[in-house]
Amino acid sequence: MKTGISTASFFTKLPTESCFAALKEMGVDTTEVFLSTYSEYEKGFADALGSRLDGSLKVHSVHSLSSQFEGELFSPSNRVRDDAEQLFRKVCYAGNVLGAKYYTFHGPLDLKRSSQATDISVYAERFAYLADVAKTYGIIIAVENVHYCKFASPELMRDLMRACPALCATIDIKHSIFSGYDPIKYIDAVEDRLVTVHVTDVTKDDTTALPGNGRYDFERLFRELYKRGLEPAVIVEAYARDFHYLEELKTSYDRLRAFAEEAKRS
User: Fold this and answer.
1) Is pLDDT above 90 for 107?
2) Can you tell me the distance from the alpha carbon of 217 to that of 199, in angstroms, rounded to the nearest whole number?
3) Looking at the whole model, is its pTM more than 0.90?
């Protein structure tokens, strides 16, 4: 099973273009590239970033700062949707240049927690269109179970996967916990559509931490994945506030790999 570290983990510590060298120094061979601002969506930036890859590091997926435009892809306004789609296409282009297969996608926000029933067919139709757009760049959309977005529950993730076969899934450990569900419930909801797992630990006080520094049982996570015959990329997506030195991030990553090996043997 592939393990890696997202470039999001270096936010405010290293610029995106310096992350590849840092990852290789840590012995990491798989990453998700997080594009965190509009200038990083531009073709010139994507091309320059791609030129830094030498084959020793594989980009599994790309991720945007979704609050900048992903919700607007579902706007009732044609103009708003069209503007958002231009940014969406730029991220897909970047993914193609970087050799990524997946686009980790948050989708529409649900900050007010609407009590109205979600009409999956409406979202599925729009997702199918976006999936077709992404496909022209060789990219597959992997919807993430973000606790403040529309598809925050295992049930809605299951319904979306069934309604839109072109989609895959990213399951995030911290978002699962913050939504009030065992992450394994999401894994069972999306089954073999699972392509990425984001790992961040959560403490007893419900603050985030590096994997292994909180209360989540990552060895159990790997056991459950192996038991189901699933092999997603398991990628550390840390917050800058959760560590001071890159050595701490490397130690956490090495610990995660050890959990995976131990689970495989058990």
Assistant:
1) no
2) 11
3) yes
